[in-house]
Amino acid sequence: MTVRPVYLPPFRVDLDLRPGVPRVLPASALAAALAAALRAGGAPEPASAGLVLADDGELARLNAAHLGRRGPTDVLSFPLLPPRAFPGHPGRPAEPGPGARRVEPAFLLPPGTRLNLGDVVVSVERAIAQAEGGRGGQTGDLRWSAADELRLLVVHGGLHLCGWDHAEPEEEAAMRALERAILAAPGGGSRGRAAGSPAVSPGQ
Question: Which structural domains are found in the chain, ordered by start?
Answer without folding.
Answer: 3-87+115-184 (3.40.390.30)
